[in-house]
Amino acid sequence: MVASYPRGAGSAPRLRSLALPTASLLALFAACHMEAKNPTLQFSLSTAVGGAAEVDEEGDPLLPPDVQAHIQGALEMLCGTPSAPQFMVTEDWYDDGFNPNYPQYPADDMGSGELSDEELEAIAASNELRFRLQLELAAEGRYDEVRIPSHMVDLQAYYDDLRADLAAERAAAEAGEGDPEELEFLEGELSEGAFVNWYPTLRESAEMYRQQCLHCHGVEGGGDGTTADFLNPRPRDYRHGTFKFTAMNAKARPRREDLYRILEQGVTGTAMPSFRRFSRAEVWGLVDYVRLLAVRGEVERDLAYTYRNDFEGDGVLPLSNVLAAYETVWDKWMSAPVNYLAFDGEIPAATPELIARGREIYFDAQSGNCQSCHGDYGLGDGPAAYELNEDGTFKLDENGDRISAYADDWGHPIYPRNIARGIIRGGKRPIDIYRRIYAGINGTPMPGIGESKNADGDPLLSDEDMWALVHFTRSLTERPEPIVHASPDHGGGHADDHGAAADTHEETH
Amino acid sequence: MRLLYALLLLLVPVLGVYTFVTADQHGWWFPDNVSTYGPSIDRLFYLIQAMVAITFIGTEVLLAWFMYKYSKRRDDRGVFSHGNHKLEMVWTAIPAVLLLVIAFAQMGTWAEIKFQKGFPDGEFSMDRPIAEVVASQFDWRAIYPGEDGVIGTMDDLENPFEFVVPVDEDVVFNLRSRDVIHAFFVPQFRLKQDALPGHTIPVWFNATEEGVYDLICAELCGWGHYKMAGRVRVVSRPEYDQFLADLDQEWFSNGMEEVQ
Fold first, then answer.
1. Which of A14, A26, A92, A133 is the most buried (most CB within 10 A)?
2. pTM for this prediction
3. For residue A38, is it within any domain?
């Protein structure tokens, strides 16, 4: 600024020197006041293994472009787009009155009836908190000052309509032609009903998903958002319909309640946080949208599979095949509650005797056989889970880390849990661990042993054995030292039995 | 022209004082204090605020005046100055004294909040904390000790996101981090404490009003720092006991109540 200029040049250069900073400041202000435009998102086809846009080694697509276009179009018809997500209602559903777009309404009255009356009450109570500022203003009749959160686009539209109707009704009342009942209804909706009974539409949930989930889980729910590359483990890819931490027996689809619980609790030890700061309705809405993405991904994989393996003719699959694939996927989701897994009885107390018995099962190659993967000390370093050299030692990669022998369903290497760290992703409650051991973990090599039979056809483990194993697993998570260490060299079973393993507690992988 | 620049510069203290005076009306000032030691933190803040305000306004006015008086004129020549020893002594001594004043003024408050030998020793103490609050990328969870009162055992109860405490009681909890440095910050409690990985840090407070308060991570902890929110819910003693009972029931549930 103090740059020298020729003497006697007048004041013009000074003014000019002001021009640049002034212009930049103005530009900055303008930029701050510009409306942030949301990019219009589009669903694309999956390039993952089994996806419709998968390519071979040379980079050529496995399915020709016209087939891909057909799949793309079919999916758009069935599940909509990110800005207008919607499940297609098939003819049968329409006749039955079933509509999966509205879980809050009864299954025979254009809804899917997946929210109990108690849950609907809880949602209303939670809405009262969520909208307390809006309700305060509306209670005073100051409808015009009510501001609605930006992602609730349909609530905004509904509220605007109500306000317009109210204005018209009031004008009519002044002219002596008004309908008092209608006026009362409008005022009731404006001051309370619209907020207390709010349940997000899929469009609103998609906007919420865009703000909260998309950066990790991706537009299509493929676990390939921009921040996904920074995460270990990677975010869940919904498109298989496989979810790891559920309350299901068998490799079934999760219930909506299972997804809700994950959103509410978060997944400890991963980047998935708890979403309890949002209202119940908002979290249920996210569950609905995640299910839409999962259904879309499953249908895509199904159609891609059919085109690659079973489809003889040229041209495109008939509509009936597409709809059949859609309904098959839906049936899996709707039948999820049948596979719900709980323990009918009182959970036995975690006595030292029971824990010691659990320890035996942990090491018993014929029943539990847990140590083969989870290791002698529960550190997740058992030989069966890793690549081994011929002499039985671990193969190591260039960083000196052991190499996993297995990949999960999504193609990522998978390691057995280090139980001794005390971080159990699927939940640390006894019943959570019971479900993991009983039914295994979907998409991973962790097997379920709850219903295994021995050579005589009898159950391998009694209920008490199962709980012994659960309590033993829980005892490994204790700190500073577990009650009983898993250690092949120890007699095991009592509180003072932990010396040898205490030093092996550092994180190994 | 030089008058214009001087006045422009003078806008800085004028706007600064204006925002300060009107901050309360706009809701930009402190949230209500609900902590027993909050008032002494606020007193310290106002003490420093007064010192800073006087210094800020004085130096800004002086700068504006200098800008007007000593701006370059067409035919001036520069003046060489070797400085002024007395002036420098004065402007070194005054801040030094002020720093000492702050250092002594804060000692009592610091000792009350942070010194472990002065920690509350009632129902909750450093040996028997109410819970362990664990920070991780990017959420908070409270781990209550369960029946045996010891954290890290099989009867622990975990509550994600929400830390529930009884009102009007001295509450001691342990703060831990699972990955990087986080900071436990509840503005209404006037309480901020870093959570360091590998350390278990005892913290205490006494909340004087029931309510729901935002728990914020106050240490840039990674890409998700902005969304690392939690909640502290201050409830009456009966509600607190009920909360623990409900949590215990949910924690040791056999899953059958969900069967429809």
1. A14
2. 0.86
3. no
